[in-house]
């Protein structure tokens, strides 16, 4: 990190939480300068709609968060052996 960036960070960290959050959001959004493919938004919208319909119709079952964590821990444990 350059000295200028370090000084900016020091000043940013001294800001109140709401101001830091707004600054972080602005900085994060500035990283995404590529124009979005118009088809991507439509495709994601359709995918979300399909998934909601699958849940509402009972076609798929939701898994409780605790169960997801248990399964993930088991997978990670097996992978580290």
Describe this structure in words.
- This protein has 81 residues and is mainly α.
- Helices cover 75% and strands 0% of the residues.
- It has 2 domains: 1-30; 38-79, no CATH class.
- The protein is built from 4 helices and no strands.
- It is extended and about 55 Å long.
- The mean pLDDT is 91.
Into which percentage range does the β-strand content fall?
A: under 5%
User: What does the radius of gyration come to?
Assistant: 21 Å
What is the ordering of alpha helices and beta strands? Answer: HHHH
Largest sheet: none
Task: Please tally the β strands and state the result.
Answer: 0
Number of domains: 2
Class by SSE composition = mainly alpha
Query: Regions with pLDDT < 50 over 5+ consecutive residues?
Result: none
Helix fraction by DSSP (H/I, runs of at least 4):
over 70%
Q: How would you state the average pLDDT, rounded?
A: 91
Main attributes of the structure:
mainly alpha; 75% helix
Brief summary of the model shown:
Helix content is 75%, strand content 0%.
Q: Which helices and strands occur, and which strands form pairs?
A:
Elements: H1 3-13, H2 17-31, H3 38-57, H4 65-79
């Amino acid at each position: 990190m350059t000295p200028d960036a370090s000084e900016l960070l020091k000043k940013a960290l001294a800001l109140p939480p709401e101001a830091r959050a707004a600054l972080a959001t602005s900085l994060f959004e500035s990283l995404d300068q590529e124009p979005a493919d118009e088809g991507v938004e439509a495709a994601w919208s359709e995918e979300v709609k399909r998934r909601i319909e699958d849940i509402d119709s009972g076609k798929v079952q939701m898994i409780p968060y605790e169960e997801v964590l248990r399964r993930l821990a088991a997978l990670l444990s097996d992978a580290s052996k």
